[in-house]
Amino acid sequence: MSKTIAVMATLDTKGPEAEFICEQLRKSGAAVTLFDVGVVGQTAVAAEYSREAIATRGGKGLDELLVNPTREVATPVMAEGARQIVKDLINKNELHGIIGLGGLQGTALCTDVMRSLPYGFPKVMVSTVASGDVSSYVDIKDITMMFSVGDILGLNPFTRNILSNAAGAVMGMANKPKLPTGDNKKPVIGMTNLGVLTRGAMQAIEYFEEAGYEVIVFHAIGSGGRAMEQMIREGIIGAVFDYAMGEIADGVWNFLRTSGPERLTVAGKMGIPQVICPGGAEHLGILVEPNQIPEAYKDHVYVWHNPVVFVPRIDPDGLKRVAREVTGRLQHTSKRAAFMIPMQGTSRYAMPGGELHDPEGDKVFFEELKSTMPEAVEVIEIDTHAEDPVFVKACVDKLINLIEG
Predict the structure, then answer these.
(1) What is the DSSP string of 259-320?
(2) Largest Cα–Cα distance in the chain?
(3) How far apart are the first and last CA of the chain?
């Protein structure tokens, strides 16, 4: 079956370039569905989905948007309209990939649509801003950003080459061989990890695989934890080993790894099995100028994760705040959950011999966790550190018991 690719652009300013990509896709054997998400300018390019149709689907007529037109008003309407149409086509298996063209405004609009689409669906964004910080455009979705290098304003030998590569990229994704889904009836496990827990994470993967489970690991530095929560919502993940809690600690002070208010809530709301460990929650990750210690943390025990990531040990009062934040987010949990406490340290930094080892601080932290933990969450204490294979095996066995018991 031939693949159908959506091409999305403001055709008043990107018409010839969009037409060129459509031509390249057709030469590769694809069918093309062109979306015009422009509003104000005129275009001679015919689109399968006109700006009028997209605006109407987004909740306002184009005539209404053209009365004192502003980007602030028009962009959300056009994005919503395009999003609804694209999702309908995907649901009917009539669309197999999407490619967008844009500068600042077009990139924001097209990636707004792309972020609503399923993981694994091919998404390519050719953008003039793709060489900078694209986190706001990609967020936690698998969007491929391609830097256009030159402005997307007129065709020339260089631009044609870039656009042809982009067309080839989305076609390659859409035409990849169908991956076998297998017959494993066991849920996929989502697991969070930090660099100071990696030895334990690798051991956990081995234990899970020996038991017939597959694991998706998320680097818990903000986007990783949020991506895991989203994949739980989408049903991709059916059980959780939440091994790393540094995102919660940083979230209390809004530092590097903060992951937002929904982190550590979705598994509980959905009732899926979860085992939680406060891995890495004893320290903060603070982005600084190279080797510059923040004034507020000069009296803390600290280590450098790298020259620009300063890692101070959280003091006892701060650890109480972190504990209450963790247990507050677990109030949504009503079943199939266990909280595993490694009594000798919550990360490689905090274990005996580690730079941030502080048994007295740990004691304060653990007591606050236990005293504020929801009754529905079983608390299990194990007298070793978080990377010890004994602790990791206990966590893995507990999660498998919650899944299968």
Answers:
(1) --TTTTTHHHHHT--EEEEEETTTB--EE-STTPPPGGGTTS-EEEEETTEEEEBPPHHHHH
(2) 72
(3) 44
| Domains annotated on the chain, with CATH | 4-174 (3.40.50.12020), 189-404 (3.40.50.12030)
Cβ within 8 Å of residue 235, ≥6 positions away: none
76-87: per-residue pLDDT in tens?
A: 999 999 999 999
* Structure tokens given for 61: 């007529």
3-state secondary structure of 63: helix
**What average pLDDT does range 59-72 have in this prediction?**
87
Q: Give the type of residue at 156.
A: N
What does the mean pLDDT of the chain come to?
95
Sign of CA dihedral 392, 398, 402, 404: positive
| Both structure tokens of 45 | 């390019």
Phi-psi region of 212 (alpha: psi -120 to 50; beta: other; left: phi over 0): left
pLDDT of residue 182: 55
What are 279's strand-pairing partners?
244
Q: Calculate the alpha carbon distances from 297 to 204, 221, 286, 339, 397 in Å.
A: 34, 21, 10, 30, 39
Across the range 371-390, mean pLDDT stands at 98
pLDDT (tens digit per residue) in 19-55: 999 999 999 999 999 999 999 888 888 999 999 999 9
Instruction: Compute the CA torsion angle 148, 151, 157, 160 (nearest 10 deg).
Output: 50
Judge residue 219's burial from the number of C-beta atoms within 10 Å of its C-beta, 0-12 exposed, 13-18 middle, 19 or more buried: middle
DSSP state letter for 155: -
Q: In this structure, what are the phi and psi dihedrals at residue 330, rounded to the nearest 5 degrees?
A: -85, 0
pTM: 0.89
